Amino acid sequence: MLCFTAAENAGRTPKILITARSLDDPSVLLEVIDNGPGIVGDDSIFDAFVTTKNKGMGIGLAVSRSIIEAHEGRLTAVNNERHGATFSVVLPISPDQISGHDACPE
């Protein structure tokens, strides 16, 4: 649901790109890139009860960051050059997850 929030009021056809790739350390990087209005303000968007919606509770990003950090990951957000923002999630991969385990068991 957070993905759709980003692009819903930008005056453009909403577009969201989700990418995933492995990093060298070993971890995985997930990015959600949208063409919405971008982020207004600073890192406070991750604080509890911060919202830009009339009926929003402002807990979605705070809870998301807490869950990700509980798994030794990090969640960040930056504005894109033209439109929108990119939210990045980096999560560590344990050695047993990359040595011989099938990611898609039958």
UniProtKB/TrEMBL annotation:
Q: List the EC numbers from the record.
A: 2.7.13.3
Provide the reaction this enzyme catalyses. ATP + protein L-histidine = ADP + protein N-phospho-L-histidine
Which principal EC class is assigned to this enzyme? transferase
Ranges where the Histidine kinase domain occurs: 1-95
- Example GO molecular function term? ATP binding
Sections of the chain in a coiled coil: none
Xref: InterPro entries: 2C_sensor_his_kinase (IPR050980), HATPase_C_sf (IPR036890), HATPase_dom (IPR003594), His_kinase_dom (IPR005467), Sig_transdc_His_kin-like_C (IPR004358)
Answer whether the UniProt record assigns the keyword ATP-binding to this protein: yes
User: What keywords would UniProt list here?
Assistant: ATP-binding, Kinase, Nucleotide-binding, Transferase
* PANTHER family recorded: SENSOR PROTEIN CREC (PTHR44936), SENSOR PROTEIN RSTB (PTHR44936:SF10)
The protein's name in its UniProt record: histidine kinase
